[in-house]
Design a protein that fits this description.
Length: 802
């Protein structure tokens, strides 16, 4: 019985988790492998798909259609990642093909040209048949006949040809001149004798060329090693001593060279953590750890020394960070320790850079991978350790399909590879800390700062009282201003944070109360100073700043609230000599801008770093002795069960930037809710107390982690269509649920209209519902037959219920 290929097709309107059956053309029979992409006829079209398996029988009655072409010479997903895709589809209620696409490097989605390169393994006949002109050839299945494709696949599998990828955009392979010589050592020696005395530089170059390896060496390296100028090298080229050929180089996504570092001497707490982790590494145990270490306790050093042990064991390591663009210091520290072995993956890289890094991982040249969320899918082999820094960060959860959490994927891969997973944070997520309490993770505590430096002293400033007392500026309290001035006098540095979450500066008419809103979304437009424009932060809509109220024609329409630019202007007026660096989405839009600003601050080219939440994490600047939080509680009012947790985490993290070196740190938190427990406990930096308090609140409110949660959302341009769909879905869900489950809604979402669409939601909280999964699978399938324009989303363990 002939083999039949099972293919997941990529047809957005006809998605299913069941593969379709296709006949395999005879020539491809032995060459096709799971994980390869193919094109297949589907209806009247030809579509692409991924082979996920083989079978010998099929339910399908008629004549099977055949696979048209294979797109890959080797599987783009290895067996591990194929299994992972299935698991991801199961647990996130996404389609398998969506999961696979999420996992593939962007490179494979971009237009790439593949070239097949002959190697010396080829027999003369093979060479004659497949490479008649001796050169590499393009692999373009639309131009090659099936026999040739099958033949090439076979050669590839036998390792007789290699494949290179060429990204079609301008960021293709980068080259530098490389030097080779076709002269024999003796010829070079003769030449050297003849020039020795009159041209010592040329002689030096000839000496170097005698020891030149077979492969091309970068010209810069030759020039440096032989101590000659490029003019001497070009002269040698004209004399025929050497040849210059383009040599492929990797783009280095690190602009600055990093100084290598060596392991630090660990303190007792760090040592205990490293011992526990590395025991699991060497014994190849899928054991999971929570490193709960206060800010500045040296968690990074624990990660680095644990990674080093994994590398010694011949294994590789994956280190996840929340957002690479925001954490250049962390990336640099890893690079400083492991140098060329490090690959960095993130969306801020150009296509070409991503391609280079991916290729280095794929070839096994990079054994330490640092990356943000999607790096959790990197095709790393022989994983010996996975680290997730700042594990509480919400950016680890993807907010579109598949709605996965990188932490879950990391734990899955740890199990697959028999390697430990380390979750680290000064403020672990409630879920993680609760799991550690249950014994699912081993808790490793770093309770002290390095060298027993004290945690900063935190002052809470009641802004209600402040505003009553003095008429001045409403952004800065008197004690905070005094403290800033004090730091300026002592030549120390200040970090000021303006919390932008749940907050915006909007236009409001003081006469009629009219608020300028986005015509597409249900939220107010945000006032921007430079350029002066009103902007919607959800859909990007822009319009001119009004001078009269569109509602009552009053001229008293003003902006309300505070933006970083406005605060900068106000602060500069109050402290004319202060050098202020502003860091927000506007000042960091350009590539590398974030790192540049941080470098400036690190070199003390500025006294004050003023920024949004992006300055709260990971910064390690010894000269910062004061941290000010201008508005601690803007997020507390959000209809989000994690509002307190987020506020506590943010305040603790940003406070942790102060006093990390010899000089002690101080923190001022300005708030309108000075008695709120999240703020009070941030004052004492007492995570454990916060955990207990917040767990109690969650227990009372039946929230995660006491309950599991599913959020279902329906959206449509017509509000009634969205609402109706939500009621129908709810009816279906109810049938599968016991009366123990708690259902919230249907309700319009907190921001009910975004990008011209209305959003309705239902939240299900449950403990044990064996039928729920089947019902949700049905909803996912049924969403294919939904009215035009209706989108249904299923989010397991949503980050919020808003
Ligand atoms: N064993 C050690 N001896 C001396 N200095 C150390 C040691 N371990 C770490 N450090 C230094 O202490 C500082 C704080 O360490 P690190 O940034 O790793 O803290 P962290 O726990 O990651 O803090 P945060 O959660 O605030 O980012 C760094 O400057 C680091 O170089
Ligand atoms: Zn008005
Ligand atoms: Zn909008």
């Amino acid at each position: 019985m002939a083999q039949i290929a099972q293919v997941l097709v990529d047809v957005p309107t006809m998605q299913t988790n069941d593969p379709y059956s296709y006949a395999i053309p005879d020539q491809l029979a032995d060459q096709l492998q799971p994980g390869m992409r193919v094109t297949v006829p589907f209806g009247h079209r030809v579509v692409s798909g991924v082979v996920v398996g083989f079978t010998t029988s099929t339910q399908y009655e008629g004549q099977l259609k055949s696979i048209r072409a294979v797109l890959d010479l080797a599987p783009v997903l290895n067996p591990e990642l194929q299994q992972l895709a299935d698991w991801l589809a199961q647990t996130t209620y996404a389609f398998r093909i969506t999961c696979i696409q999420t996992m593939l490097p962007n490179l494979l989605k971009a237009s790439v040209e593949r070239q097949i390169v002959p190697t010396n393994e080829l027999t003369a006949t093979e060479r004659a048949v497949y490479f008649p002109d001796g050169a590499a050839r393009d692999f373009d299945t639309s131009k090659l006949d099936t026999d040739t494709v099958a033949g090439l696949l076979k050669l590839r599998r036998a390792g007789k040809v290699t494949v290179t990828y060429q990204v079609k955009d301008k960021a293709s392979v980068k080259t530098t001149p490389g030097i080779t010589t076709s002269l024999a050592p003796q010829q070079l020696e003769d030449l050297k004798q003849s020039v020795a005395t009159r041209a010592p530089k040329q002689a030096a170059l000839l000496t170097y060329l005698q020891a030149l390896p077979d492969h091309p060496v970068p010209q810069a390296k030759v020039a440096h090693a032989a101590g000659v100028s490029s003019a001497v090298i070009r002269g040698a080229e004209t004399k025929g001593w050497l040849k210059r050929t383009p040599l492929e180089v990797y783009r280095d996504p690190f602009q600055q060279p990093v100084k290598p570092t060596t392991p630090l001497r660990l303190n007792a707490e760090q040592q205990a953590a490293v011992d526990a982790i590395t025991t699991a590494v060497t014994q190849r145990q899928a054991k999971n750890f929570l490193v709960e270490g206060v800010t500045g306790s040296g968690k990074t050093e624990v990660y680095l020394q644990s990674i080093a042990v994994a590398l010694q064991q011949g294994r590789s390591a994956l280190m996840l960070v929340p957002e690479i663009a925001l954490t250049p210091q962390m990336t640099n520290r890893v690079k400083a320790r492991f140098g060329q072995r490090v690959a960095v993956l993130h969306s801020g890289l150009s296509k070409g850079e991503q391609y280079d890094e991916w290729r280095r991982i794929d070839r096994g040249e990079a054994t330490v991978v640092v990356g943000a969320r999607s790096a959790v899918f990197a095709p790393i082999q022989h994983l010996g350790l996975i680290i997730m820094d700042e594990e509480h960060e919400s950016s680890y959860k993807q907010d579109e399909n598949p709605r996965y959490h990188a932490r879950d994927v990391a734990l899955w891969r740890g199990k697959y590879h028999d390697c430990p997973v380390v979750l680290g944070s000064a403020t672990p997520s409630l879920e993680t800390r609760a799991r550690a309490a249950k014994g699912l993770y081993t808790r490793l505590v770093l309770a002290h700062r390095i060298n027993d430096r004290p945690l900063p002293t935190v002052h809470i400033i009641d802004m209600r009282a402040e505003l009553k007392q003095h008429q001045g500026d409403d952004d800065f309290s008197a004690p905070l201003l005094t403290a800033i001035q004090d730091r300026l006098d002592r030549h120390e540095q200040v970090v000021l944070m303006l919390n932008r979450r749940g907050f915006s500066s909007f236009m409001m008419c003081r006469d009629c109360g009219f608020v300028l809103k986005c015509p597409n979304c249900d939220i107010s437009l945000t006032y921007h100073v430079n350029p002066r424009v009103m902007k919607c932060h959800y859909c990007g809509h822009e319009e001119a700043v009004p001078t009269v109220c569109p509602n009552c024609r009053s001229r008293k329409i003003r902006y309300y609230g505070t933006g970083t630019q406005k605060v900068e202007t106000a602060l500069q007026k109050l402290l004319p000599t202060a050098r202020i660096l502003r860091m927000d989405v506007d000042s960091t839009r350009r590539k590398g801008a974030h790192e540049k600003l941080l470098n400036q601050f690190g070199q003390h080219d500025a006294d004050i770093l003023l920024g949004t939440q992006m300055i709260a994490k990971g910064l390690d600047f010894p000269n910062v002795t004061l941290v000010g939080v201008l508005n601690a509680d803007t997020a507390l009012g959000l209809p989000d069960f994690r509002a307190s947790e987020r506020t506590f985490q943010l305040l603790t993290q940003v406070s942790g930037r102060a006093g990390r070196a010899e000089k002690p740190g101080e923190v001022y938190i300005q708030t309108f809710n000075p008695d709120h427990y999240a703020i009070q406990l941030a004052r004492t930096q007492d995570y454990e107390r916060f955990f207990v308090t917040e767990m109690h609140m969650r227990h009372q409110g039946n929230y995660p982690p006491y309950y599991y949660a599913i959020q279902l959302t329906a959206s449509h341009e017509d509000e009634s269509v969205a609402a109706k769909a939500m009621y129908q879905i709810l009816a279906a869900v109810k049938q599968g649920l016991s009366d123990q489950a708690i259902i919230l809604g249907p309700t319009p979402k907190a921001i009910a209209r975004v990008k011209r669409k209305y959003y309705y939601q239902v939240v299900i909280k449950y403990k044990h519902e064996p039928h729920l999964k089947a019902v949700l699978d049905q909803i996912r399938q049924g969403s294919q037959r939904a009215p035009r324009g209706l989108a249904v989303a299923i989010d397991a363990e949503p980050m919020n219920f808003m």
